Each structure stands twice: as C-alpha cells, then as structure tokens.
Amino acid sequence: MTLSSVAAMFFNLRFVLIGFLFGAAGVTGAVAVGADSAPPVAKKMNVVLVLADDFGWTDLACYGSKLYETPNIDQLAKDGMKFTQNYSACTVCSPTRSAIMTGKYPARTHITDWIPGQMPENPKLIVPDWTKYLPLEETTIANDFHKAGYATASIGKWHLGKEPYYPEKHGFDFNIAGTDKPNTDHYFSPYQIPTLEDGPKGEYVTDRLTNEAIKFIDKNAKEDKPFFLYLPHFAVHLPTQGKKPLIEKYEAKITKDMAQNNAVYAAMIDSLDQSVGRIRDELTKLKIADNTLVIFVSDNGGRVPTTSNLPLRVGKGSCYEGGTRVPLIVYWPGITKPGSVCDTPVISMDLYPTIMSIVGISDGAKNAVDGVSLVPLLREDGKLKRDELFWHYPHYQHYQLGGATPYSAIRKGDFKLIEYLDDKPTELYNLKDDIGEKHDLAGEMPDKVKELRDRLHAWRTEVGAQMPTKNPNYDPSKPEHETPKKLEGSKERTGMVKPAPTADQLLDAKT
Predict the structure, then answer these.
(1) What's the CATH class of domain 392-467?
(2) CA 79 to CA 463: how far, in whole Å?
(3) Per-residue pLDDT tens for 256-291?
(4) Which residues of the chain form CATH 3.30.1120.10?
C-alpha cells in the first residue's frame, strides 16, 4: 500500500467518524461541516414544569371557560398538544405531587391523602396508617436530573413533608417557598412563608414566584447549563385573593348565565396565566425557547363552588371526573404539532418517564414503575399499550362540596367503576357516552362490574394498597359525615365561599 493510499484511507475515515458523532449526538437540523470543523455536541434540553393547584378541567379558555381569560396558556396549547383526558393521580394534592415526583401510584407509596389529612368525627371506617411525607429512599425526577448534570429548582408549593423531606433533600438544588403546608394564607406580602423572604408590602406571590423562576432561568442560561424548573404555584388554591384591577375586570364581565362566576378566582387565574406568559417570553428573549420543554398541568380538579367543572361531576375531593380530570398541555419544540389534541387517557405518573425520554436521560425513570412515556402520543406515531388507570383513596373528604368516602376506582377503556369501601353500592359509568356520570350502569351490566372489580382488586394487591378498617366506635345514631370542629383554616375552606380580601384591604388591615 502506497503512502498516498494510506493518507486517503485515513481522510475518508475522518468523515465516517464525523457522521457517526452526528448520529450519536442526535443533532437536529445540523449543517455540513468541513474537514477542519469539530462536530457539534447536542445541547441538553431544558424543562419547565408548571403545576397549578386545584385547577379545574374547564378553568382555561382553551378548555371551554367563558369567563377566565388565559391567552398565554392558550398559546401554549396552540404551539403544543392539549390532552382532553388527562387525570391527576388523586382527588387531592399531596398524593398527586408524590406521583409526579416518583412516577408511582399513591397507593404504592402509601401517600394517599393531603398531608396531614383530617378525619370526620364519626366515620364508619378508620383510615390506614399512611405515609405523611415523601421518603428519602424514593428516587425522584429531580434526582435523575441532578445526576445528569442539570441545575434543579423547586419554586412554590411542596407539601410533601416537613423540613427533613423538603425539596433540597430530593434532588433539588434550590427550594424557594416550599414547606410542608398545603397552601399559603397570604397571597400578598408579607407572606409568612419561612422559605420565602418577604417582598415589598403588597407584592403578589404568583408574581414573586415567577420572578424567582426567571432569575433561575437567567442564571443557568448565562452559564449555558441545562435546567429543570419545577414551578408548583400556590394558585389557585384557597384562600381566594386576587389583585384588585383584575377582580374589577372580571366583576364587569360576569353574567347571570355563567357557571363560573367568581371574580376573585378569575383574577387569580389571570395572574397565573401571566406567569406562564412571562416565563415563555424570557425563554424567547434568551434564545432558548426552541430547546425548552414546557408543560402545564394541575394536581387535582377545581374546587366547587369556587369554580365549576361542568360538564364534569362536582370537583376536588370527589371520586367523580370533576375531582381528577385536569388540563395537561405539553410543548415539545420541533416535535408537537401546533394545536394538536390528544384524547388518550393519561395520568400524573406519566410525566416522569415522558420527560426523561424527551431529554434523553436513558437511565432515568427506572423506578417510575407506574408511569408510561407519552412520547408516541406527542409524536403522533403510536399508541400506548396501557388501557387502564386506577385510583385508591382510603380517606374522607367531607369538607369539600361533593367530597368522598373511602373508595377505589378503575378506568378501563370507556368504562369507569367506583367501588366504595364501606357499604355503599358500586357504580359504573360509560364516560364516552356519559361524561357527567349521570347514568349508573352497574345494575344493567353486572358482568362488566365483575370484570372491572376483579381487576381493581388484583391491582390493589399488586401495589400493596392500604385498606381502611371498620370503626368499632362508629355510632349509627350520629351523622357519619360530620366535619371535625377544629377544621384547619377559615370558613372559606368548608365550602362557604365569601369574597376574598383585595390587596388594598389586606394592606389596610396591616397599617
């Protein structure tokens, strides 16, 4: 072999190596490079996960609201994919938040109620000894991101245990405003949140969390470091407190025929929508929008009567669709077809493996045993192999309108079966024909009831679900659903909604 032929062979091998590196890096839209150019390295995708609190299925204009104005989140749906049958893992918040963090059913982790939960005074059943924190042994989505070299931040509500179980113990570099509390009592500064420094008097917490999120984004964009931003807003959880100009805006808009008619709540939604818009604008300004996955979702259904989830039945705290069917919008730049809509049933646990798959963390989500990747749906090139979803809530929720007694439920195909764990009869609905769950088919379809009940029982065994037990002190002569006398919080939390104070009123009270 001559010297010239050896040189030619190595020259050709050089181009083969460059081509291989392009393929391995998964570079999209790569341009040709010369022999002296280094092959580009694929940039890790950033992730922004916005979690709204108690945000109902129809609390967005793009999901049918006639009152609430949500142009920024609507634009996210226009740019990405809107899911019409997305479910929260539970009808209340802490279990869903643990499901998002771990990819596991709440029944598997035994985090099955809002923390710390509350029992009625005369229950037929005693709830099990459930877990009131997110165990440190659990691998979270933040752990996987941290291991992969991402900057990670949790900015907002945590509600998964006291200080030993705070976000920074679960893979987050930063925890801003996260505590064990279910909500903030003060949407206007001073907040009285130990993990959030007070801002100027009257500052609105939704705006403040957004400011903190933008600082985090800016810092990591400047350092060219990939980031995972978990932004669990307090909004729109009680107490209803909105900014005065927005309240006045919606007071002028409300008409008698509107099912949704709370101007203060509408103002809170408006501020939340502005938050999403500000974050997306910042991503665009920093020229990283095309490399940032953005997801908007809720932790459980909207709280009735603060809002209306119609045509769904009731809301938060309920075993019906209004308690668990919630918005989900995913914008995956360059992949999701603008304005696409997906009708496949999906659930909270799916976010973990979906995000890991999208960003290419191949060893991530190994412990997310109950979630499945939604990538085939987002790419619109496949379907999910799974056709069943489950809920298990061995607790009571009587201080929410339409609240539940202990129950388990299964959705398989179009059918949903609700099995109460006391002596109430099982219910069966065909959600395709009866989204409002008005026609109980249990008496008409006993074979379907048996099929679904048997599968539900098998699933409970598979995940090690905890079951309630009979209360030996139950007094049938007293109301079973009597609410505890020392119910945490104000009258507003018992369902008796009154007009919330405006920023001006709160400031007047302080001065």
Answers:
(1) alpha beta
(2) 37
(3) 999 999 999 999 999 999 999 999 999 999 999 999
(4) 392-467
